[in-house]
Write a structure and sequence with these properties.
With about 140 residues, the protein is mainly alpha-helical. The chain has helices at about 5-30, 45-55, 60-80, 105-130.
């Protein structure tokens, strides 16, 4: 039973990243001429849109952005369109095989806490800038 719990946990973290990126795109995309994108689940599509918004005013902390980009890329590699951890099989009915032994939930939790803190900071930063800049 324990290993099966990995699926909903990782799915929720992946979904958090997707929804966070969509939030930034819808809330602040106008700043950098990034159109809203509520339909796409592909993190490889959403990440560049987010990055364009975040770096519109300056390059930001490129080291932190690079680290976050690696995290998003890892989720995209494992679950490009949000199906891998949502369902036990693909659309053809074949089991989705994942090496669950290589997922350290404790480390993942700590990593995702850092991601959430980063997103909170970016939201405050962009909110402050968007209130004080003419567009």
């Amino acid at each position: 039973l324990g290993k099966r719990l990995v699926y909903p946990i990782v799915f929720c973290y992946r979904h958090f990243i997707e929804l966070s990126l969509k939030y930034f795109i819808s809330e602040y995309g106008h700043i950098a001429d990034v159109p809203p994108n509520s339909q796409d689940h592909d993190l490889d599509v959403l990440w560049p849109m987010f990055r364009k918004i975040v770096t519109h005013f300056n390059d930001g902390d490129t080291e932190v952005l690079a680290a976050l980009e690696e995290i998003v890329a890892e989720f995209a590699k494992l679950d490009a369109r949000s199906f891998t951890f949502r369902y036990p099989t693909n659309r053809k009915g074949d089991p989705i095989m994942i090496d669950l032994d290589n997922i350290d939930l404790s480390k993942l939790r700590d990593t995702m806490e850092g991601v959430a803190n980063f997103f909170d900071g970016v939201d405050g930063y962009l909110d402050s800038l968007s209130r004080n800049e003419p567009y």
